[in-house]
Amino acid sequence: MNNQKGFKSGFVSIIGRPNVGKSTLLNHVIGQKIAIMSDKPQTTRNKIQGVYTSNESQIVFIDTPGIHKPKHKLGDFMMKVAQNTLREVDLVLYVVDATEAFGSGEEFIIEKLKGTKTPIFLVINKIDKIQPDDLLGVIETYRTKLDFKEVVPISALQGNNVPTLMEQITNYLEEGPQYYPSDQVTDHPERFVVSELIREKVLHLTREEIPHSVAVNVEQMKKRENTDTVYIGATIIVERTSQKGIIIGKQGSMLKEVGQRARGDIEALLGSKVFLELWVKVQKDWRNKAAT
Ligand code: GDP
Ligand code: K
Ligand code: MG
């Protein structure tokens, strides 16, 4: 973990209308530098979409649901949630589509943004689809609507200018701690659920032979570069060598079965393909040790 002087960290919210390229941007940023992302809705107010960690900084991307025009009552509520989130983050990336004419959807979001003191970057995406000359017009249109701290044209798809965007973001962050380990990208609840799913399979398949005290520690959970696969490495911790033998089974057959069943559930949980690697470790009295 990094707590060195000069290390910067902060929370950033990516907002914008559907299809402007928010997910593509996040995937591009996170895809190279860690991450697991789940599209599953979560009940927590501030869903972490991804964590970018470099030697100099850590940027935690926070989802901001409900920034669009509300269609019903829940929409009004979501709008409040969105505005609270915008207040709490350090920086807002407002992503727009360079190929789309400015319209009421953007007007609506800009009205909401006017109420926040958080610095806002205008990120003009899909510049690979327009002529350089046309970009100036797009910039001018938006500039007159709101005071953006930075205006950054990018192509999230091809990666053009994304490194510049990351630099600009880092410039706006304050010195701070590394909140999450470099290999971690989801918040704790998901890791916990994953470990519980594995534990459940162990207990179910081994019946009474393995006590409930068996523990599962998810060591790594990481999106593999340029794939949709999430790598998960986890250790099953037992107290006796005999228990280790049972969990591994004949020629590894039991562990294989545990892994296959757990993987199915985890894939459903995360909504992505999972490569699951399991180890079994004997650690005498781990419960007592853990308590001290
Ligand atoms: P979101 O709804 O804002 O998350 O948008 P997505 O990231 O899902 O992107 C919507 C569509 O726009 C997808 O088909 C993307 O491939 C496409 N897209 C996103 N960024 C770019 C870009 O920079 N250039 C081009 N040409 N297409 C893009
Ligand atoms: K969003
Ligand atoms: Mg999206």
Please give the radius of gyration in angstroms.
23 Å
The first-level CATH class of the largest domain is given as Alpha Beta
Largest sheet: 7 strands, mixed
**Termini, distance in Å?**
22 Å
Mean pLDDT, as a whole number?
82
Strand proportion: 15-25%
CATH superfamily of the largest domain: P-loop containing nucleotide triphosphate hydrolases
The hetero compounds bound to this protein are: guanosine-5'-diphosphate, potassium ion, magnesium ion
Your description of this structure?
- This protein is of the alpha/beta class.
- It has 2 domains: 168 residues, Rossmann fold, CATH 3.40.50; 104 residues, K homology (KH) domain (GMP Synthetase, Chain A, domain 3, 2-Layer Sandwich).
- 38% of the residues lie in helices and 23% in strands.
- The chain contains 9 helices and 10 strands.
- Strands 1, 2, 3, 4, 5, 6 and 7 form a 7-stranded mixed sheet that branches. Strands 8-9-10 form a 3-stranded mixed sheet.
- Helix 6 packs antiparallel against helix 8.
- The longest helix has 19 residues.
- The protein binds guanosine-5'-diphosphate, potassium ion and magnesium ion.
- Potassium ion binds next to strand 1.
